[in-house]
Amino acid sequence: MRLVIFDVDGTLVDSQGDIVASMTAAFDGVGLAVPDRDAILGIVGLSLDHAMLRLSPDTPEGLRAEMVEGYKRAYQALRIKSGAASSPLYPGIREVVEALSAEDETLLAIATGKSRRGLVALLDNHGWSRVFQSTQVADDHPSKPHPSMVLTALAETGMQPDSAVMIGDTTYDMEMAGAAGVGFIGVDWGYHPASLLTGAREIVSQAQDLLAAIARVTGEQG
After folding, report:
1. Radius of gyration of the chain (CA)
2. Contacts with 209 (C-beta within 8 Å, 6 or more apart), sequence order
3. CA dist., res. 87 & res. 97, Å (int)
4. What is the β-pairing status of strands 106-111 and 134-136?
5. 182: exposed, middle or buried (C-beta count within 10 Å: 0-12, 13-18, 19+)?
6. What is the per-residue pLDDT for 221?
7. What are the φ and ψ backbone dihedral angles of 45, each rounded to 5 degrees?
C-alpha cells in the first residue's frame, strides 16, 4: 500500500487568475497598494493569515484580518460565477488522479492551504468528491510548511512515511514533506520556480510523467 498526497493550487489546478483577482480585491477594499503578481503567486500554499502577513507585514493585525475576509468573499464570488472553470485542472491531471484512484494499492490525500469550504466546492466542481481518502485544509492545521497536514493524512490512512509521497509546486510543500519524513516530487508548472525545489526526489514537467515518478519514489522508500 502507498499514500499519494497532492497539493491543490499550482499542482492539480491552475487557480492563479482567481487568486490574483481576489488578492487585488482584498487590498483595494482597504485602500492599500496591491502587491505585484509575482509576489502574490509566491505566497500560494500558505494559509491566508500567513499569506497576508507575508504580503503586508506592516499592516495592523485587525486590518489584515479584514483583508483575509475580503479575499474569501471575492474568491467565493468568482467560484460561484465560473464553477469548474474558476480553477481548471492542469493538462493530464484528471487522467493521473483517476488512474491512481483505480489502483487497489493506492490511497489518495490532499494537503492544501485552502479552506474546507473552498476545497469541497472545488472537488465537487470536478467530480472528485469521493476520490480522496484524506483531505487536510488550512482550517484545521498550522500553515505549511508545518508538517501537521501530512502527519494527519498518514494517521487517517494508517500509512507510514516511507510508504507515502507528497506532490507539490512550492517550497512550502517540499519543506512540509521533509519535516514529516515523506518523499517529495516537485512539479514545474506551478507557482514557485523548479530551481527552488532542491529537496525534491524528482521534478516532473508533464502530468503524464507523475505515475512513473510516484512508482520510483515509493519503490525506493519501500
Report:
1. 17
2. none
3. 16
4. parallel
5. buried
6. 62
7. 110, -30
Q: Which three cell numbers stand for residue 140?
A: 484545521
CA dist., res. 142 & res. 149, Å (int): 8
Please state, in angstroms and rounded to a whole number, the distance separating the CA atoms of residues 167 and 188: 11
Whole-angstrom distance, CA of residue 209 vs CA of residue 203: 10
Q: What is the mean pLDDT, run by run of 10 residues, along the chain of 222 residues?
A: 97 96 98 97 94 97 97 94 90 98 97 94 95 97 97 98 97 98 98 96 98 93 55
Between helix 61-82 and helix 116-125 the angle, nearest 10°, is 10
Positions marked catalytic: 7, 9
Of 88, 71, 64, 70, residue with least CA distance to 19: 71
Cis peptide, bond prior to residue 35, ω within 30 of zero = no
Which residues fall within 8 angstroms of residue 25, CB to CB, at 6 or more apart? 70, 71, 73, 74
Task: Confirm if 113 and 141 have CB atoms less than 8 A apart.
Answer: no
CA distance 177 to 67: 29
Residue 139, SS3 per DSSP = helix
Q: Enter the C-alpha cell of residue 154.
A: 498518514
Burial group, residue 202, by CB count within 10 angstroms (0-12, 13-18, 19+): buried
Question: Burial code of 144-169, b = ≥16 C-beta within 10 A, e = fewer?
Answer: bbbbbbbbbbbeebebebebbbbbbb
